[in-house]
Amino acid sequence: MPDSPLFSLAAIAVIVLAVAVVVGVGLKVIRSFRDLGTDAERATYNTLHAASRAGQHLRGGLQPAGAAKASKQLRVLLGCDALAITDTDAVLAWDGAGEELRPSLMRLAADVLSTGRTVVVPHARDAGIEKPGQDFSAVIAPIRAGSRVVGAVAALAPAAGAGLVRATSEVADWIAAQLELAELEASRTLLMEAEVRALRAQISPHFIYNSLNAIASFINTDPARARELVVEFADFTRYSFRRHGDFTTVAEELRCIDRYLLLERARFGERVQVSLRIAPEVLSTVIPFLSLQPLVENAVRHGLEAKEGPGHITICANDSGAFAEVTIEDDGVGMDPEHLRSVLAGHTDGDHVGLRNVDARLRQVYGDEHGLVIETAPGEGTLITLRVPKSQPGHDA
Predict the structure, then answer these.
(1) Domains of the chain
(2) pTM for this model (two decimals)
(3) How many CB atoms lie within 10 A of CB 163?
């Protein structure tokens, strides 16, 4: 029966067990916090954690949205009543009390932006600014990008001691470092775009001239074949010279390769033989734009073109756990490994540009461990392997 002593004892036991679990979890949380060590160690952790979170919001440069989110973390670091971030024209973010003073801040920051020196305003009333019922002090430090002042950080507090002045200056320098990282990332993107343009330039003089000659040779003898080649040539060039996106998919790159090889076979005939082994599950994997076609072109130009008789190219794309693995192998003339190292290091101008360019871009995007792996020797052909992660948040084809 529900009111039996046995039932009551069971209910009490369940309650006791639940309390024990809650207490145990609480003690575990307390112990995990104590594992951080002394008060100084915990303060260091909190400081670094806040700085890390603020830094994420400044990687896009000095923009209002990022500055607004970063200012919340930075105000906690400084322990001030309010913190503001400006560029050279306006206040980008204000966090904390006294936002009614925001319109006056750029006037206070004028000397900082023009001279690059930190300014302390001991009493806002002395500067002609009043907050009803409360005076405040302001420390305004410049944010520098090289020799230029690009903005300022202002910390507002009842009193501006030497500690707040030094801390505000350090925060301004820290923001400057984040902006330099943002500029470095932007430069890296521009470098990638320049390298893609270099690949396009490599394609244009050599391949386009030979393709047009091959098409011209069929105009009188096989007009239908000539028309087919013109369409394939148009599709190839449209893809290769597209202006949008730094990334594509394995499937799109393979379509480009198919058109490229069709045009090359129009020149070489049966001298170029191709085998494909493609796992369907890797076709949607995102890869840098023009990262496979130059490797196939390298196999044709530097592997098979100099070889007597027919040559064979094998293209494989396999699922390798968290990665897609693509291999391009030819049985052409190969190359000396020492010469290959010189090519990849950029010490040989005008030779195997596509190979070096693809290797550099893969390392920039995915890290040094994802550069090309190349096995070759004179007379032994060449095997090129690249591995890219199948999951790539932020990279859209």
Answers:
(1) 39-184 (3.30.450.40), 219-389 (3.30.565.10)
(2) 0.53
(3) 10
